[in-house]
Amino acid sequence: MGANLINTAYLLAAVLFILGLKGLTSPRTAVRGNFLGAMGMLLAAVATLADRQIVSYEAIALGIAIGAVIGLIWAVRVQMTAMPQLVAAFNGFGGGASALVAGAAVFMPGAISGVPEIQVHVSGVLSAFIGSATLSGSLIAWAKLQGVLRWQPRGLAMQAVISGSALAGIALGVCYVVDPTALWAFGGLCALAVVYGVLLTVSVGGADMPVIIALLNSCSGLAAAATGFVLGNNVLIISGSLVGASGFILTQIMCKAMNRSLWDVLRGDLGEAAAKGATTDVYTGRIKSTSPEEAALIFDTARIVTVVPGYGMAVAQAQHAVRDFANLVESRGGEVRYAIHPVAGRMPGHMNVLLAEADVPYDRLYDMDTINPLFAETDVAIVLGANDVVNPAARDEPGSPIYGMPILDVDKAQVVLMIKRSLSPGFAGIPNLLFTRDNTLMMFADAKKAMQDLSREIRDL
Question: I need a surface site. Which of 54, 219, 314, 393 has the fewest CB within 10 A?
Answer without folding.
Answer: 54
